[in-house]
Amino acid sequence: MNLYAIVLGTIVATLLTVSFTRLSKVKTKADFLVAGRSLPAFVLVFTLLSSWIGSGSLLGGAENAYKHGFVALWQGGGGWAGLFLIYFIAPRARKFAQFTIPDLLEARYNQTARVLGVIAILFAFTAITSYQFIGGGDILALIFPDTISPMLGRYIIAAFVIFFTAIAGMSSVAYTDLVIGLLATVSLVVSFPLLVHTAGGWGAVHAALPASYFTPLGDFSLIQALEIFLPTCLLMLGNQSMYQKFFAAKSEKDARVAVVGWIIGTVILETVIVALAIVGNVLAKQSGSLPYPREILAFTALHSLPSLLGAVMMGAIFAKVISTANSFLFSPATNLINDIYVRYLSPDASDKKVLIVSRLTVVLLGGWALWQAVGITSVLAKTLYAYTIYSAALTPVILAAFFWQRATAAAAVASIAAGTVVTVSWDTVWVKHLLPQAIAERDAIFPALLVSLLCLIVVSYLTPPPDKEHLARLSA
């Protein structure tokens, strides 16, 4: 345990050192929000990779793989499909060169779309941050079982993430992600063949689990597979944290090159994570253990790897969780600052005042995320809830802003509002009683997305088209 403590301490010290080093370079709003638009492709690759693969994959995806097998790759596959499309979107996003997605919504649609976009992002991103706190807390409890409970671990991680995120904003997040991405990629890839060997080879792994674990759909129906594929794909396409990093790129070329590296890294890591969870299931059975499904990667690192490699892998998982929490806490904070405070409350605020308010906002949103974390029982369920809010409410209007000139402001407002309301209310008692059971028992993604798209398309054709001169200025 001393070795694990040393590795975690080293990681924390490294992250803080990088953050404080970048602090001296943060003097303006642009420095804090988009790193002064100075990130090269190499840094972008790892900050995108680190912010995307967090507890949603390491806990939620691994939990799914532990229970059902390779069908869990449908969740990761949604991200891969989204990434393929992002290759063509990234240069457009960098060309727009704003601070947030609501900036885009107001420029393309109107102020109401901006405000509703902020609300949807706050619900989705604080939910994502909340289960990162759970992931970090679980890791601390596994390493220090006699002194730190999972709940206490959530409080400790929340305090660290809030402080760390508030130090230097995007600059801090991006450059620490470079360290985290390299560490996680190497440790996970190296650990996989060693764990397969420990389990007795891939044949032994295959023999120890149901055959469904190794089929494309497993014990899922196609509808169930699509219910974990679509939210991930659509979140990827509209992810504000991702767009902010494109806004922070040095150039359009850097943004596009970064996407290629991101695709390669994501396919490798998502596949390795699922495979590790499956092998971890077998190793746990062989030892007679029954770990919590969401903790299977950390449990396997702790009990089935050589001490040093296990400590490094555990540290990498911990660092990944921290990285994702930073990104998804920082992102909604920029919304409240740029889209509400500077836009409506204090347009003439100095850079110094904006930085102070930004850091206070990080603290407040971190507290809200922690409040949500205290009540979560399933990371996988919370993951899909957060992804669905964003996917249904924002992704359709974001893509329309780039690719469909006929989309109108009224349609965007209706689409965002409808997607948010359907998702947030879907699991309430009155919806369950109002709808037929065959519909009510499904996840929210299909009804929420359908209602959002119908509002976007129908209202667009029922209202006058956007001004052509306005659209021409946006694309110039």
From TrEMBL:
Record flagged with keyword Transport: yes
Record's bilayer topology term: Multi-pass membrane protein
- What do the Gene Ontology cellular component annotations say? plasma membrane
User: Which subcellular locations apply to this protein?
Assistant: Membrane
Keyword Membrane included in the entry's annotation: yes
Chief place where the protein resides: membrane
Q: Which PROSITE patterns match?
A: NA_SOLUT_SYMP_3
Under Gene Ontology molecular function, one entry of this record is: transmembrane transporter activity
Which branch of life, at top level?
Answer: Bacteria
Q: Where are the membrane-spanning stretches?
A: 6-23, 35-53, 73-90, 115-134, 154-171, 178-200, 220-238, 259-284, 296-319, 360-381, 387-404, 411-432, 444-463
UniProt keywords (A-Z) are: Membrane, Transmembrane, Transmembrane helix, Transport
PANTHER family, per database record: SODIUM-SOLUTE SYMPORTER-RELATED, SODIUM/PROLINE SYMPORTER-RELATED
Per the record, the similarity remark reads: Belongs to the sodium:solute symporter (SSF) (TC 2.A.21) family.
User: What is this protein called in UniProt?
Assistant: Sodium:solute symporter family protein
Organism expressing this protein natively? Terriglobus albidus
